[in-house]
Write a structure and sequence with these properties.
By secondary structure, this protein is an alpha+beta fold. About 20% of the residues lie in helices and about 30% in strands. It has a six-stranded antiparallel β-sheet with strand order 3-4-8-7-6-5. It starts with 8 loop residues before the first helix and ends with a strand.
């Protein structure tokens, strides 16, 4: 899961499973959709068939007070609906203690799963310190008896074109590899842009351990980072789909042996790389411009060694007299 919200998860699962969507006879009503603000998506329940198995056992959603805080800046038309929601709070609270033995067992399993996910989170707070609650834009759903096959089906549903979720890591980088749900335990984060706020992601985070499964639905500040993919240039060599930043360009060239770009020596640390502003094009690809110098210890001056363009199919040497380029190193 992303680190931004991990600090409250244990408290949310052990002390924050406070709003149970209980139906008649102690059962739990499955949500029709996972909703946060104006964002919504399909639920894990949609793939929990009799064949695949699995059932929802607990849910934690924002309390009425938190919803009222968020509704303060909305139109006055929403005030009446917010009051109705507040009136229902007493009924929901009355149902809180009507849990079956199986539900209690599942909550204990969820707590154990949370502790495994968290690792050693340090000592608990001092006496009298209130437990930290889940943010108001977060919902947590707990399931039992969920099979790897069901999680695979749910992954397909989230990644379908109409849903548009991507698998990301903790740094928001897109991951191509699907999770191995057959492993004993693990976690995966699905994300897409939130529709109600710029620079925010709508995330579905799944933690599983055996048949126990926790789905966290949340909004997280961040931007999805697409992978740097390759395409073929006119010369048949791989080409970058995006231009490197100047910092990335310098770091990349420094990582090469000097011989890779036609220079002498054992390390590029012997050379000074000076970025030049501008974005020259090679084969229709944006490149970065570097001048390379080497210090002359006798004269105490820097000697110009060449001009290089980095991008497209790799590193090009530029002949400034003829304005021609020569590919000296491919990616």
């Amino acid at each position: 899961m992303t680190e931004i919200n991990s600090h409250w998860r244990k408290a949310a699962l052990t002390a924050g499973l406070c709003l149970l969507l209980a139906g008649c006879g102690g059962g739990l009503e499955a949500p029709q959709a996972y909703v946060i603000g104006e964002n919504n998506t399909v639920t894990l329940d949609s793939v929990l068939t009799s064949e695949e198995g699995g059932t929802i056992v607990a849910a934690s959603v924002p309390s009425d007070e938190e919803e009222e805080e968020k509704d303060k800046d909305k139109d006055k038309e929403d005030e009446e609906e917010s009051k109705d929601s507040k009136d229902d709070k007493g009924d929901k609270k009355d149902k809180k203690d009507k849990k079956s033995k199986d539900q209690k067992d599942d909550e204990e399993a969820a707590e154990q799963l949370s502790e495994q996910t968290e690792g050693d989170g340090g000592e608990e707070g001092e006496e009298g310190e209130e437990a930290e609650e889940a943010p108001s834009d977060t919902c947590i759903y707990t399931y039992s008896g969920v099979t790897p096959g069901a999680l695979d089906l749910y992954t397909d549903a989230l990644r379908a074109k109409e849903e548009g979720f991507r698998i990301i890591d903790a740094e928001f980088n897109v991951q191509k590899q699907r999770p191995e749900y057959s492993s004993a335990a693990g976690n995966v984060t699905f994300a897409r842009k939130a529709v109600d706020e710029e620079g925010v992601l709508f995330e579905i985070v799944i933690n599983w351990s055996g048949g126990a499964c926790i789905v966290t639905v949340q909004r997280t500040p961040g931007t999805i980072i697409e992978p740097v993919e390759e395409e073929k240039s006119s010369q048949g060599a791989p080409a970058m789909q995006r231009a490197l930043t100047l910092t990335e360009t310098v770091d990349y060239v420094r990582s090469l042996p000097p011989s890779a770009i036609g220079l002498e020596g054992s390390s590029m640390a012997e050379y000074s790389l000076i970025p030049v502003q501008g974005s020259p094009m090679v084969d229709g690809q944006v490149c970065r411009h570097l001048n390379v110098y080497q210090e002359d210890p006798n004269a105490g001056t820097n000697v110009f060694k060449g001009t290089y363009l980095v991008g497209g199919s790799g590193v090009y040497e530029l002949d400034e007299a003829t304005n021609e380029v020569r590919l000296v190193h491919s990616w």
